[in-house]
ISA0963-2 transposase
Amino acid sequence: MKGRSPSTGVTKLTDTRIEWLIRQAQGKARPPEAVGQLAARWGVTPRWLRKLLQRWRQSGVVPRLNPRRRPPAPPLTEEEKRQIEEEHRRSPRGATKLWRALARRGIQIPHQKVYLYAKSRRWSVPNPRKQRPRGRCRYEREHTGSLLHTDFHRASVNHPHVILYEDDASRMVLSGGEFPEESSEHAIEVLEEALAVAESWGLTIREVNTDRGTEFFVSKKSDRPDPSPGQFQQFLTGHGIRHVVSRVQNPQTNGKLERLWYEYDRHRWRFATLREFIDWYNGEIHDALWLEMFETPREAFQRKLPAEVLLGLHLRRVESMGAEA
């Protein structure tokens, strides 16, 4: 049986991969891999890797790639620039989001060219803080409806208080509202809208994650005369929803929503209503989803529905078709 054929991708071998190859030859890398396995995974021929190993054994120096081994690529054409600018006007995002949106429309422009052009127009600014290694692992629920994130946010003292309910698995925003003040009544009002959206899909919301704000949570150690659960907590209990409360001084627990506030502050002003912003956000490509398919939160919401919900939707559709017949 023939081995796996090399990949046709452009980027095949890097200096880091060559160092890993040498560590494998020295027996210092774990897990151990054969030259054929590395060649198949990296999309190169085993002969080329053995040639690099031969150079290393003869010289004792780890081979390095020649940065000038390829001629410079042609610059962007005026038509390509126009397409990038048109996409940025439609949805002003960073270079990676622009590149994925163009690819979804069938416009093939190398990512590096899109990044350099966006950088020249100051649409994309390098952020050293985001380039550091992450100290936390991202958690994510498997199915839609398992957990909703919510919180109040205010862009400035001149803006209203906004609350959104975001699904953890799909990143889809189910409901939202803008109010002059934060309150448990507003939180419950918007949650009822989210539950109605879930119910339209035959879906049951199991858990809701909030911080320890007084509109969501009343601690048993509270100094209030009546330390019983607050109005929001009672509403969750009455609907059989588990309340997941974030730890004190730990906003990373609700980090998905914190990242959503960044998009809200950047793009909310472009839309006349909050509903229009939510529809736009749910229809945009999301980096945390199925990138190879350019998936949006709305598409992920359907893809990650539990099996029993999908079966129920199918049966409802069959019944409606039978009634029409």
About this structure: The beta strands are 147-153, 161-167, 173-179, 207-210, 242-245. The CA atoms of residues 99 and 105 lie 10 Å apart. The longest strand covers residues 147-153. The radius of gyration is 26 Å.
